[in-house]
């Protein structure tokens, strides 16, 4: 139990990578706070995680014998973000891990000069600012503890560019910058900040993933073939599994990575190496 | 062939399933002897790529002196008794350890072992013939015929070289094992049973299987059966389970004890609710609402009116009226008079109604229709009866019948199930966990002629809720029903899965807090969309398996997102007071996990069929301990956690959109037609299809059948054939029938507004083209072979036909042409 006695807060925990990370953390003994918008967001053209899915993630975590706190939160809402952190501390007394996973894949699919003001703002507000809000709400708690690990879920789109994806790419690149700056600010205070860059993650059944399908949809890639198309672009010829990313966040959350901060860990089957 | 110490030999075993089973060596190679890491090495060896030509390595034996991968065949090839044709199973595969079979029996030991294995296997799978592979003095495949009436001595093996076996028995009964080698699993078989000699001259068995639970079961039952071989009179007398095991199985399938009932009869329970809140609304229908007090007054009048007409306690009173709030008062009035109500749907053909009235020997029928030969009472005469009050001593007692509900009969005519007050009260007591109460609003969606309505009506009124009676037209319109649910703020919804799937609207807008599924089997995967819109924390979904003969419900299973994601088919544990036990056709209790017929016991078992003593004696049986059961005819099995899994029917009873239908009843009715010389009815794609041998026009036959059968039992198609195809066994060849081209279906929906029907028909046409077969407005897309890929194509096809887009999620919510038309908004198909 590599995370025994630890408390982890995971955003975007209803499904997908968030569910995978939450369950992986719980499997290592961490109590978890599961946060998700649990509802659709106007402007996002695909259905987001639901309350039922969030409850299911909670159930899966509880099967590992840990305690679970479920919170509904839109990461654009600073007030709610602060409330969630306060609720977590009230429930558990401390907070050791933050997985900044909440993020949207669309609205995307347009060249940079055709992206609307609204779409650009939405993408950055959720994917970049949301992570910053969470981080800055959690950091004081961790600083007071002189202990903590923050993991920002970026993307290979945070390392390289993609066509018709400018908002997403900018936000994910921004996350890397945030990671490094925050790492420097918090290192003397014994709080670590790292980023994970997943490549194309398979929409696996048990996590009810949708991200890859949403990306394919916005890029106009055939739904029936998008998995093969994405997989063929990875040097390993296979998609990344959610468990692969989850395992990385577990390592970064644990004390095994105590000297790792300001780092970027890429889990992409070699995609961004070329 | 070298000995073990010098090396090991690999022998290839052909695995062509059509080839006769034989382990004759095909090739021969020497593999270096084992190193330190024996298991890993052995594993690596097993996984070495195979030569082309379907050749498989068989890991057969391991030697304690260090050699291992010996693959060999007939014992004659071996130069020492220590070498055998079995392998050591890898850790993680099922091992049973040593099972003591007892002292060496007299006579042919090998034959006895084989007989015991055969009988055990037969009981697991309900087989009358068992095929075993035997590795003994020679290698052969043998078959046993298992006939319960024959003597045990008459169990003998006959050689069947052209068959394949799933189980192999290694007979080493002349050998002591353990000293020289560790026998293991023979690959290519599901189970390996190895029998040899143990210390003290006893027979020892080892069971290996990749299915650990199966190995464990086999290891448990084999000694039990083996030990009875000498003393059992017949094969049927052999008991698979020990008395303790049987008791454990019975215990597992028993619901908790039901606390004693507070009331003796339905009217008493409702009277208590009435005293508590007389002004609370009890029943609503359209603009009429009756408070509990008003319901009480009206039903008392009905009771007095019936008694004045001589209706005595335990009489049977028919009710043939359209739905209304007053109908509920009439039913309650009949119960107050101490009589049982016999509900009849006014939409049924007259023939069926009169048959029911005759068969049930009704004292009277409350109706506005005519029933020749029976006393009819106009409902107004009862509702307006203001003379003397009823005498309490004429009221019902707990075991008096409360209702007779008629169900489809396999020989052509329906039969009446008699259910007493006590059973209905038990049902409400057993469902306390649903926390039903005066704050709830229920719907009566189902006809009073179906026992789901018994739960809807009395479950509601006995717990103080408000019952909203739904008109048949509203029930048939997904949009209107959804609006009713929303507007009436319904909290408790009872539905068949089919009807639920057609609900048209955003579940987030509803107040429903409890949905109970019944009447047909549920595929929980279709619930994901509902959960997303209305999570379990806000609304409970419960799947209940039940039968009319055991008072509506038997088991309950709480549904969660987990059930939907895994597609679990479990129907849950029995309600408190009910019990289930699974038995084989001979009535023997089967082990946990083995399929068989579900027998239902407990307080819900009804009194039997009215005036059908023989049938009642057949289906309602008493076991040796005096417990009374109903043999359901449903296939199922008990899971280790005590939940029941429903596996279908044993016979020809089917569920059509929630209605219980005996195919035999339909074919019997068709055969009664003077123009029909042979008839067969099958179910395909959720529809009834009939095939007749006749010179007459099928439409004319259908018209005549419509005068006898209710609309849900009318076949969608009647196809003329020259003769009914039979299999080589002389049975009806259902597969051939299902593949025959059929005549076009006749629409069965009542005609509603024209534009709606037009849109529905166009949509049917689009579906029909996509799915390649005739489609009716109530056909389920997925039952007809649709999947999510075809769903996308359907959306495009509908767009091409001028309809708006159809999101796949919507198709999952309403998978019928009628439902899709409803989604488009009353079907006024404005092309976009």
UniProtKB/TrEMBL annotation, chain A:
GO terms for molecular function: oxidoreductase activity. It comes from the Bacteria. SUPFAM superfamilies: NAD(P)-binding Rossmann-fold domains. InterPro entries: NAD(P)-bd_dom_sf (IPR036291), Sc_DH/Rdtase_CS (IPR020904), SDR_fam (IPR002347). Keywords: Oxidoreductase. Belongs to the short-chain dehydrogenases/reductases (SDR) family. This is SDR family oxidoreductase. It comes from Kribbella antibiotica.
Automatic annotation (TrEMBL), chain B:
Keywords: Phosphopantetheine, Phosphoprotein. It holds the Pfam family AMP-binding_C. The keyword tRNA-binding does not apply. It comes from the Bacteria. GO terms for molecular function: phosphopantetheine binding. GO terms for biological process: amino acid activation for nonribosomal peptide biosynthetic process; secondary metabolite biosynthetic process. Residues 754-828 form the Carrier domain. GO terms for cellular component: cytoplasm. SMART domains: PKS_PP (SM00823). This is Amino acid adenylation domain-containing protein. It comes from Kribbella antibiotica.
